[in-house]
């Protein structure tokens, strides 16, 4: 009985850890930025190694890729993405893990 309870407890802990990892893809940034050539994403948390891509954003659609930055699994602090100059007033940051978009954030550029 003790072995069964120990096995169940370990299974629950492992299951909880897997759920927490899958829910840990986030951006910690301001939704308003002041530069069209550099986006400061703050802390980016990725469940696995991945990539942040920043696209022009107009009429609810992703446009041209403006910049990208590789991130590692876990918390990545002070993440900054250099952008190709554009005249856009909105961009969207997309966090990709294993080629799948796991987090998105629309950012308004206030000049």
Would you kindly provide a written description of the structure presented here, covering whatever features stand out?
The chain is α+β, with helices and mostly antiparallel strands and 111 residues long. The protein has a single domain, classed as Immunoglobulin-like (Sandwich). 19% of the residues lie in helices and 55% in strands. The protein is built from one helix and eight strands, in the order H-E-E-E-E-E-E-E-E. Strands 2-8-7-4-5 form a five-stranded mixed sheet, with no helix packed on it. A hairpin with a 2-residue loop joins strand 4 and strand 5. The longest helix has 21 residues. The radius of gyration is 18 Å and the shape is globular. The N and C termini lie far apart (66 Å). Keywords: Signal.
Total domain modules = 1
Q: What is the topology, as strand order, of the major beta sheet?
A: 2-8-7-4-5
Whole-angstrom Rg: 18 Å
Task: Tell me the CATH topology.
Answer: Immunoglobulin-like
Determine the number of helices (DSSP H or I, runs of at least 4 residues).
1
Question: Could you state the oligomeric state of the chains shown?
Answer: single chain
Can you identify the CATH class?
Mainly Beta
Largest sheet: 5 strands, mixed
User: Count the strands?
Assistant: 8
Looking at the overall shape, the CATH architecture is: Sandwich
Provide the structure class: alpha+beta
pLDDT under 50 segments (min length 5)?
A: 1-22
Percent strand: over 45%
N- and C-termini, Cα separation: 66 Å
Tell the overall outline: globular
Helix content, binned percent: 10-25%
The average pLDDT score comes to 78
N-to-C order of helices and strands: HEEEEEEEE
Keywords: Signal
Signal peptide: 1-23
